Amino acid sequence: MKILSVGSEIYPLVKTGGLADVMGALPAALAAESITMRALVPGYPAVMAALGAGAVALDITDLFGGPARIVAGEPDGLPLFALDAPHLFARPGNPYLASNGVDWPDNAQRFAALSRVASLVARGAISGFVPDIVHAHDWQAGLVAAYLHYDGLPAPPSVMTVHNLAYQGQFPAYLLGALGLPVAAYAMDGVEYYGSIGFLKAGLQFADAITTVSPHYAVEIATPEGGMGLDGLIRARSSVVHGILNGLDTANWNPATDRALVARYDASTIEARPANKVALQARMGLKPHPESLLFGVVSRLAAQKGIDLIIEALPLLESLDAQIVVLGTGDPAIERALAEAIARYPGRVGVMFGFEEALAHQIMAGADAVMVPSRFEPCGLTQLSAQRYGAIPLVSAVGGLVDTVIDANAAALGAGVATGLQFAPVTAAGLRDGIRRCAALFADRAVWQQIQRNAMALDVSWAAPARRYASLYRQLAQSRPGK
After folding, report:
1. Could you tell me the residue ranges of all domains in the chain?
2. Nearest to residue 18, comparing CAs of 221, 168, 213, 241?
3. Which residue range or ranges hold the Starch synthase catalytic domain (predicted)?
């Protein structure tokens, strides 16, 4: 079985969030299920550099104002089609934003082009690769199913995965014709969405199956509180909605082999772990205090991620003689508040603005606990990597965090299955309660180490999610007329 996966970023070539991790991990995970997946991504400079010469699989004379081609290759073993359209994608920096931090003004055309070309490949435009399923990810690939629908030609079934419903891809209605969509498409049961063209809405409307990146998130987005204006459509299509939990690249995230760590370890040698804490405290300018409860945060610095709640909780951390390290970038106001916190709590708060892969691994290995106080979280990978490294996750009880962290309540502690802590409501007071619970557990080192070992024993790999996706693909393929 062959799958065409379509998305706007892919790890390790270009990444702004968890979408890239999924795009990069699924092909290898599905190979174990006898499924061949090839990703179609924009030909950003980093992608084209990784492909090198490549092989031209398809030439396109005009694609929204310029020539384009599909270049095929397998950089680092990753099966890839790159949409090489320099007039759309040969731009440095962030895939979506200009250097001034504002969306590229032609983002509608850029990602409509990705979807348009995906629809051609889905119908066999590339010799030797005729996919059985086309799998589109997030709003940037939302028009794939719409193009397949309105072309009216034989096409494989489609899957639409929602990684984050908050990003929907809405563009002015006057672009309808320029994007190659018929007038009939501008309707409630088409691509029209509150007076605009909705890329994600189109995918949800026309895909044969819809998946989210966790079961709990699938429930949340069908509610007015979590649906962000799309809950009615999601409820109407509930029979084709599936919550499939993300996995983690357990080869990349492995404390027993991780070269970024000063001391490697596994669940049976967890006594080696504290050396990483000492190294992390030194690197981040914290007081060298092995007995202090050290929290880690690796996150986009945004209100969605609850970073403002962490800032409000800093006085409590001080009263508990706890420390915190933060790695991330985002909202300028949050960055300023964290910069001020370094001065206000010297030796207790350490922050690095930006992202460094090695430091992210060092935080997971050195922190005692990792905070993920998101206001909503489709899945989240941070808590998975934290558990893999024996850093106890303290998470809000939302989305995929509910599905992946077993709260250390009395029943779970008694049964010996707890892997972290959940807190609710998602407020400053709720987080403070969670921090107090965490500190109380940390004080009992025998209980704490049992939670660590439970967490490290979890299977957070892509094996189970890959089986779920494979089952869905086969079900859809069998439903195609003529099967």
Report:
1. 2-247+463-479, 267-457
2. 213
3. 2-235
| Sequence-ordered strand ranges (E) for 218-377 | 241-243, 294-298, 323-328, 349-353, 369-372
Q: Is the dihedral of CA 135, 136, 142, 144 positive or negative?
A: negative
Separation CA 206–CA 191 (nearest Å): 9
Is 483 annotated to bind ligand? no
Give the pLDDT confidence score for residue 479 in this predicted structure. Answer: 83
> Considering only CA atoms, which of 464, 52, 426 is closest in space to residue 250?
464
Question: Mean pLDDT of all residues in the chain?
Answer: 96
Confidence of residue 482 (pLDDT cuts 50, 70, 90): low
Q: How far apart are CA 165 and CA 193, in angstroms?
A: 14
What confidence tens digit (pLDDT) does each residue in 266-304 have? 999 999 999 999 999 999 999 999 999 999 999 999 999
Q: What's the token pair of residue 161?
A: 């995965």
Decide whether 2-247+463-479 matches 267-457 in CATH topology: yes
Q: What is the CA radius of gyration of the chain?
A: 23
Nearest to 208 by CA among 470, 472, 482: 472
Fold for the domain defined by 267-457: Rossmann fold (3.40.50)
Query: CATH second-level architecture of 2-247+463-479?
Result: 3-Layer(aba) Sandwich (3.40)
